[in-house]
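Researcher: Sequence recovery benchmark, item below. Answer with residues only.
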């Protein structure tokens, strides 16, 4: 068990020397022991990574999450994405946890579960729950793009389980943005209309409104224009790899 004094020392070090984790920042690299051996984040460049924290092993909410994540894992693989889970327990607790899930349900957890018992990764990513005396994390999910940049941060209290369908929807939205430089509206679902970024000059504004019908886009406001990913127009042309327009920072 992590002592209160030890955790306070770790927190003071984090407050003095750590940068704030934000969307767009290069995800801090790490190497850690997991239930599938050592994992280095940078080894997954070229893939989307969902880094998810579980407060501790053998927690009821976390157990349902590992089971649900396994159910969704094939859909993530289809999207060139993987999951890395993390707890603040030691490797033996994590191994016993996933083995207990297997014994009770027959489900094998297909992704690594990191043992962050010294809190080093939790500190780097700002996961530690300040309301707890011991080393327990909040329920964080970081979506990291193939270039190693953080593209989404979702934080929930430890008492609230994640919606993996929503995580999948967010991943789909991010991939639309990175591939086409398009945006997604409220309640968007894959296959639905997407949004063209607003014009930034008056000439572009007028040109877009004058040519909207030609390109099959609908503009209820000059700054709000819908298009269809299945259409054939310049707004849905794949962006060159690494170009500024593709938002691959």
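Model:
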């Amino acid at each position: 068990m992590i002592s209160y004094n030890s955790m306070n020392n770790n927190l003071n070090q984090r407050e003095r020397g750590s940068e704030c984790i934000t969307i767009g920042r290069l995800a801090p690299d790490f190497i850690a022991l997991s239930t599938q051996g050592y994992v280095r984040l940078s080894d997954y460049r070229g893939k989307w990574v969902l880094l998810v924290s579980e407060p501790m092993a053998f927690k009821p909410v976390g157990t349902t999450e590992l089971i649900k994540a396994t159910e969704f894992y094939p859909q993530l693989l289809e999207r060139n994405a993987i999951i890395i889970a993390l707890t603040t327990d030691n490797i033996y607790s994590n191994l016993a946890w996933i083995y207990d899930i297997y014994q009770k349900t027959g489900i094998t957890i297909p992704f690594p579960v990191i043992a962050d018992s010294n809190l080093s990764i939790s500190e780097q990513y700002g996961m530690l729950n300040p309301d707890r005396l011991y080393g327990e994390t909040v329920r964080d999910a970081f979506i990291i793009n193939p270039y190693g940049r953080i593209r989404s941060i979702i934080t929930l209290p430890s008492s609230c389980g994640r919606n993996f369908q929503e995580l999948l929807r967010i991943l789909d939205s991010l991939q639309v943005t990175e591939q086409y430089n398009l945006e997604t509206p409220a309640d968007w679902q894959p296959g639905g209309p997407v949004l063209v970024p607003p014009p930034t000059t008056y000439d572009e504004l007028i040109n877009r409104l004058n040519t909207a019908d030609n390109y099959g886009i609908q503009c209820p406001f000059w700054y709000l224009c819908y298009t269809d990913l299945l259409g054939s127009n310049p707004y849905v042309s794949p962006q060159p790899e690494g170009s500024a327009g593709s938002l691959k920072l």
